[in-house]
Amino acid sequence: MKLRSVFLFVCAFVLSTTLFSQNSLSEKDKAHAVKYLNETETELVKAVSGLNDEQLNFKPSEESWSIANCVEHLALSENNLMAAIKKSMEEKASAETIKELQMSDGDLLTIITDRSNKVKTSKPFEPSDSFGSYSETLKAFKDRRKNSIKFVKSDNVNLRNYVLNFPFGKIDAYQAILFMSGHTNRHVQQIEEIKADQNFPK
After folding, report:
1. What is the crossing angle of helices 67-88 and 134-154, to 10°?
2. Where is the signal peptide (predicted)?
3. Of the listed ranges 30-39, 43-52, 128-137, 158-167, the one predicted with least confidence
């Protein structure tokens, strides 16, 4: 039993060291991230397609966000999350720090896409008519998503080697890219909830 435990420890150590030493993101991870970024952008565009100004600005309650607010929040988040990812890459994490990461990619996406867990956003992510009009807001999101996809496709470093501190724990920079996509899906769900409200303008 003791020999088996030592063997498993050595295997885990070798695996984590190998992942840490890789200089670039695996093609599988890269393709998965790009696919999810594209898919969630498509979901958002489809969800808001054809809506008029009254529908875009409808709020189910005084405390609720409108669809236009959700889109602005996503445009702001895309920019701020990418800035945080790039900031994390200024200093390469140690192998010991990488081993502290406990959350799987799947667990992370479950957390962010679960609408039953409501979280109040922080000030930099709050909608405040930052872009002047809804059309400019949606354009800003699309432009920023395009840049995010370009970043993942062209970057030659291993995003798994960098760590960000999120309120729910530490994640690697690759997971932060997945979080960005999952966050879009979360607010697409919110948009669909707004559209399903009994008072939503016809």
Report:
1. 30
2. 1-21
3. 158-167
Q: Which residues contact 145 (CB under 8 A, 6 or more apart)?
A: 37, 41, 78
Q: What local confidence, expressed as pLDDT, does residue 22 receive? A: 62
Q: Dihedral sign for Cα 100, 101, 107, 109, please.
A: positive
pTM attached to this predicted model: 0.85
* pLDDT score, position 92: 75
Bridge partners of 170, per DSSP, are 165
Classified as helix, coil or strand, 165 is: strand
* Among candidate residues 192, 75, 185, 80, the one with its CA nearest the CA of residue 141: 75
Amino acid 109: pLDDT: 96
Angstrom CA distances, 138 to 8, 59, 92, 109, stand at: 50, 18, 34, 24
Please state, as a whole number, how many other Cβ atoms lie within 10 Å of the Cβ of residue 1.
5
Domain 2-195 has CATH 1.20.120.450: yes
List helix spans (H) across 49-133: 53-57, 67-88, 95-99, 105-113
Q: pLDDT-based confidence at 15, cuts 50/70/90?
A: very low
Distance (Å, whole) CA 121 – CA 187: 12
What gap in Å lies between CA 160 and CA 173, rounded to an integer? Answer: 6
* d(C-alpha 2, C-alpha 58), whole Å: 64
